[in-house]
Amino acid sequence: MSLKRSINQIAAIAKTDFLGVIRNKTAIFFTLLFPLFFIVIIGFTFGQSGEADMSRIAVGVVNLDGELVAVNATDSFNSTIGDLFVQGLESANFTVTGYGEYGDRDTNGTAAYAISRGDIDAILVIPANFTETLTFQYTDNFGVPVPIKSHLEVYVDPTDTTGALITQQSVFGFLSAFIKEYQNIAIELVIPDMKAYVEVLADPITVSVSEAEVTEAELQWIDYMVPGTLGLVLIWSGLNHASMTIATERTKGTFQRMVIAPVSPTVVLLGKLISAVTIVYMSAFIMLLSGVLLFQVNLHWNIPVMLLAIFLGALSAIGIGLIISSIAKNEEAANSISVIISVPLQFFIGAFFPLSIMPEAAQAFGNALPFTKLVNAMQDVMTRNLPFDSVIPEMLYLAASGLILFTLGTIAYRIALKRL
Amino acid sequence: MNDIEVDSVTKRFEDMVAVDNLSMSVEKGELFGLLGPNGAGKSTLTKMISGRLNPTSGTIKVGKYSIQDDPMKVKELLGVVPQDIVLYDYLNAKENLAFYGRLYGLSGKKLKDRINELLQFTQLDEKAVKRHVSTYSGGMKRRVNIAAALLHEPQVLLLDEPTAGLDPQNKHALWEIIEVLKKQGKTIVLTTHMMDEAEELCDRVAIMDHGKIIALGSPSQLVKKVKMENTITVVPDKTSPSLIEQVKSIASVKNAYAAPDENEKRETIKVITDCPDDILPDVVSTIVNTGTKVLSVQLSRVTLEDVFIMLTGRSLREE
Q1: What is the rounded distance in angstroms from the CA atom of residue A325 to the CA atom of residue A367?
Q2: What is the 3-class SS of chain B, one letter each residue?
Q3: What does pTM read for this prediction?
Q4: Portion 26-85 of A in contact with B at CB < 8 A
Q5: Which end of chain B is more exposed for a tag (fewer CB within 10 A), N or C?
Q6: B189 near A CB under 8 A
Q7: Which of A15, A16, A252 has the highest number of chain B CBs within 10 A, making it the mutation to test binding with B?
Q8: Does B84 contact A259 at a Cβ distance shorter than 8 Å?
Q9: β partners of residue B235
Q10: How far apart are CA B178 and CA A369, in angstroms?
């Protein structure tokens, strides 16, 4: 059979397969528009500075400072520092609601009732002797001030672990700023000769955190996320599309008609491969273009390396898709298997969460995935502006895994042909 | 000369024998019917002829090529019309035909001309062919389904239940297309379980059951095997022995006699003949010429269904 004829056949199969996606609203959404939808969600969620907005954290304050407390056998009602503390919270932009008592979850109007209903994220209980302790009002029999620490209680919502963590960190951030302010005032009152020592004792280690000179420009969250989303493109467009293509055609009978024509199985496979790779590139293009147009992502465009990495990654995705498509009995089964594999897979490629925060086994699994290598390589090239040399190990891994998985996919496809 | 030769072909699926040591041949230009109930082995046989299945044993030749040794050459000679509508419903008729044409090596002007020829041949109008196939009626889809198999002008056509599910009007339109293809000299294997289709179209019919051919011949030859006769039943307003004698004297009438109808209310005249269609007008005119009124006429013919029932003891449509 002539080469020209084979090329004509490959082009016909690729074109028909491609039209099957762009003329199918569902396929269009999941293959091309879902990545766009995703980047918009990611962009609007993380696209700006990444600073936390404290007004979203609702703190219920039970300010007992100012209530009756016995100090050196004298009644005291001082609430000066407790009030300052609450004003500080409000100035830091927390949403503050005052409560008379901690109470319990069944008593309406108490802080415990509000947090159990999700009305507030945390409860801060300021003790009755807050001002008295911080102003050294407790003395011994000789009138010498007795140092007594003040004890604040912070309660968070245990039903929302992630939210509780963020709330806790935000409240502690405010507390450390408040304590620092208190220390500065206290040190001013110390006798001059001792001031330097007290300063060191109060704050023995100073820490400065700065961004290292990794990139030339200042980066936003979205700039880190966009290269990672290319890994998701491979899973959604490459794996999902390849897993459906042959299964769908087999269910509809068009595949059977194709194989009774004088077309070699290799030609059919190449046609499908070209279509799938084109769809992956289109999907990646839409994802990147929307990042640029909607969120002005600040990335480096090493196009040849990007094209090569996406192609090598697509081979792995299409290989897995071919295996699914070949073993599935029909298109519904292929779709189900594809979802079962691809949905969990996307959490292990380092696109959503860094792999370093995962358990060791999950890290090992994630690092073995070709899609993770693609994400790493793309972050190196697009975000850190590293040259091709620095991503050669990832590219070799992508090439090897692409070759292995695509070969396995081809074997599965050949076996499926015999079952027609 | 034979265009298809099937020699001692067996196809086993694990313990099940779908086609059992079957031999047959189809002559060039012949319209050959494969008749049988579901599970008889018709589809397995046509799948083996088209190269979708390999025989467990035996050989199949299409033209001068063996399907086992030269599958690509056989595929060039064959046009296969599957039973199901096998088209891309998101493409229009022209796009579907262009796709299948390119699979068979057609391109450029030749492909375009061939598509236009076939759209005319299958009587698909210009407006309709621009719409996606998903919007077509069943008859239109069937016609595109057939056109897709004709693009490369194959010498041998395998038609698998081509009129399944069609209304009588569309069914007859497709029969006309099949007859034109036969006149063009195509060799056609028609798989069907419609008696009228096989009788109307086929030169020879093979009746299959349990993977074997249990009867083979022209429809009329097969019908003759049945010990039943074609009967014309005439209901006149009156009968008489002389009237019966006059009917008996008509050429090709083997016998005629008076008999009560099913309800035993009227006398009828039963006319036994080998060619009921030919003599029906003579029978009616002979009776009318005696001054007798003809109230109704019924023609009972022996069909391939009767042949199948005689051979297997069950109906073709029984599972």
Answers
A1: 25
A2: CEEEEEEEEEEEECCEEEEEEEEEEEECCCEEEEECCCCCCHHHHHHHHHCCCCCCEEEEEECCEECCCCHHHHHHHEEEECCCCCCCCCCEHHHHHHHHHHHCCCCHHHHHHHHHHHHHHCCCCHHHHCCEHHHCCHHHHHHHHHHHHHCCCCCEEEEECCCCCCCHHHHHHHHHHHHHHHHCCCEEEEEECCHHHHHHHCCEEEEEECCEEEEEECHHHHHHCCCCCEEEEEEECCCCHHHHHHHHCCCCEEEEEEEECCCCCCEEEEEEECCHHHHHHHHHHHHHHCCCCEEEEEEECCCHHHHHHHHHCCCCCCC
A3: 0.73
A4: none
A5: C
A6: no
A7: A16
A8: no
A9: B296
A10: 56
Which of A103, A74, A404, A349 has its CA nearest to residue A233? Answer: A349
Strand partners, B236: B294
Other CB atoms within 10 A of residue A301 CB: 10
Q: What is the pLDDT of residues B229-272, one digit of tens each?
A: 788 889 998 888 899 999 999 988 888 888 877 666 788 898 88
Q: What is the dihedral of CA A220, A226, A229, A231, to 10 degrees?
A: -110
> Between chains, do B88 and A16 touch, taking CB under 8 Å as contact?
yes
CB-CB contact of A280 with A238 (8 Å): yes
Taking the CA of residue B92 and the nearest CA in chain A, the distance in Å comes to 11
**Helix, strand, coil in percent for chain A, rounding step 5:** 65, 5, 30
Q: In this complex, do B103 and A262 lie within 8 Å of one another by their Cβ atoms?
A: yes
pLDDT tens digits, residue range A181-207?
A: 888 888 888 778 888 888 888 778 877
Measured between beta carbons, the chain B residues lying within 8 angstroms of A419 are: none
- Does the beta-carbon distance from A12 to B78 stay under 8 Å? no
Mean pLDDT of A176-183: 89
| Distances in whole angstroms, Cα of residue A215 to Cα of each of A210, A219, A299, A372 | 13, 8, 10, 22
Mean of the per-residue pLDDT values of chain A: 87
**What are the angstrom distances between the C-alpha of A323 and each of A128, A246, A286, A313, A415?**
68, 10, 27, 16, 10
A415 touching B, CB under 8 A? Answer: no
Q: What type of residue is A175?
A: L
Between the CA of residue A138 and those of A12, A68, A81, A144, what are the distances in Å? Answer: 90, 15, 16, 8
Mean pLDDT of chain B: 88
**Please, which residues have CB within 8 angstroms of residue A98's CB and are 6 or more apart in sequence?**
A60, A61, A62, A63, A86
The 10s digit of each residue's pLDDT in A4-27 is 999 999 999 999 999 988 888 877
Cα radius of gyration rounded to whole Å, chain B:
24
Q: Does B92 touch chain A (CB under 8 A)?
A: no
Residue B106 token pair: 């057609």
Contacts of A260 in chain B (CB under 8 A): 50-52, 75, 78, 80
Do residues A101 and A162 lie in contact, with contact meaning Cβ atoms separated by under 8 Å? Answer: no
- Count A/B contacts: CB-CB distance under 8 Å: 64
Is residue B124 within 8 A of residue B152, CB to CB? The reply is: no
Of B99, B77, B53, B159, the closest CA to residue A256 belongs to B53
Position A319 confidence tier, pLDDT thresholds 50, 70, 90:
very high
- Whether B80 sits inside 8 A of A257 (CB atoms) is yes
Residue B291, pLDDT above cutoff 60 = yes
For A262, which of B76, B84, B99 is closest by C-beta distance? B76
- In this complex, is the C-beta atom of B103 within 8 Å of any C-beta atom belonging to chain A? yes
Residue A235 vs residues A247, A341, A342, A379: alpha-carbon distances, Å: 18, 9, 6, 17
Our CA angle for A257, A258, A260, nearest 5°, is: 65
Alpha carbon distance B135, B129 (integer Å): 10
Query: What pLDDT, in 10s, does the model give residues A356-380?
Result: 778 899 999 999 999 999 999 998 8
Contact at 8 Å (CB) between B300 and B272?
no
CA-to-CA distance for B235 and B293, rounded, in angstroms?
9
